[in-house]
Amino acid sequence: MNYRIIITEDHPLFCSALSGALQQSWDQIDIAEANNLDDLQRLLKCGETPDLVLLDLHIPGAHGFSALLFLRNQYPDIPVVIISAREEPDVIHKALEHGASGFIPKSSSLETITSAIKQILDGDIWLPADIGPAPEASSVDSEMTERLASLTPQQLKVLEMINSGLRNKQIAWELKVSEATIKAHLTAIFRKLGVNNRTQAVIALQQSELEPEPLDGTA
After folding, report:
1. Which Pfam families does UniProt cross-reference here (predicted)?
2. 197-214 pLDDT per residue, tens
3. If DSSP states are collapsed to H, E and C, what string results for the chain?
4. Which domain covers residue 59, as residue numbers?
5. One domain for residues 107 and 165
């Protein structure tokens, strides 16, 4: 069977090593690489539907779990596997809550990574051993996750820019659209999230974020 996999990763050495390991593990495999969220969106729109997306949590253009939320909303039939240097149990469980089909630490050997991907392509969910039970998610958190997942990619981008402290005029300039367009996006964002203002929308986004990184950690 000829598999098509998209690796979404902005570290070229890791991406190259992973791509090489996958090509050695399958006789027939097509691998596409995306360095940021915009590249990933272009590949998904223009190319054949992939069998799997490998997603780094901190790719440029993403914020917290926003890229995962986008993929689960826009492409629910494509399995998404997080591959990250973040290995805390809370991060792993939260990724699963947001719809990931597996979580592979970057510290894993290439042999372990390829074995995990094979299991996931066979329909299984793969997680590191001994991560402990998942904390019970509140109904409020689950509802907000669903609301965030309903945002379009452009709405997520606008929300992330609000979270960075940009005003409407700055966002319009960055995205090369009118302020009226940004205001329309904000109206839609507030409605979908069930909030009344920018501050409440930012709080909702921050609920989906990762916890702060360890001091010696990398994404």
Report:
1. GerE, Response_reg
2. 999 998 888 776 654 444
3. CCEEEEEECCCHHHHHHHHHHHHHHCCCEEEEEECCHHHHHHHHHHCCCCCEEEECCCCCCCCCCHHHHHHHHHCCCCCEEEEECCCCHHHHHHHHHCCCCEEEECCCCHHHHHHHHHHHHCCCCECCCCCCCCCCCCHHHHHHHHHHHCCCHHHHHHHHHHHCCCCHHHHHHHHCCCHHHHHHHHHHHHHHHCCCCHHHHHHHHHCCCCCCCCCCCCC
4. 3-121
5. no
The domain that contains 198 carries what CATH number? 1.10.10.10
132 within domain boundaries: no
Domain count, the chain: 2
Domain boundary among 121, 150, 183: 121
Specify if 126 maps to a domain: no
Where does residue 159 rank: exposed (0-12), middle (13-18), buried (19+ CB within 10 A)? buried
